[in-house]
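Incident log, structure service

09:12 report received: a user says their structure output differs between two submissions of the same chain.
09:20 pulled the input from the user's history:
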Amino acid sequence: MLRNALLEQGGTIGFAPSIQAGADDTAKALLAVFLLDKPLSTRRLLDRFKSPTHFHTYHGKRDLSFTANYNVLLPF
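09:34 re-ran on a clean worker, output below:
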């Protein structure tokens, strides 16, 4: 289910189908599918949320979030 949602939504995911994708939700979903032995690429996570100094929580949000940055590193 998570794997299909990630594939259908282009590699990122929100906490619900109609909610904007976020770094936390995407990272946790990628980690879950990895632990279930169905890994997907983390490329879209990096492309969408990476900035020069940190990872953004949501696309377009500029404030730093410690938990988002921590969760983004988990799938690696």
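09:41 both user submissions now match this output. Likely a transient worker issue. Closing.
09:42 reviewer note: The chain has a mean pLDDT of 90. The two ends are 21 Å apart (CA to CA).
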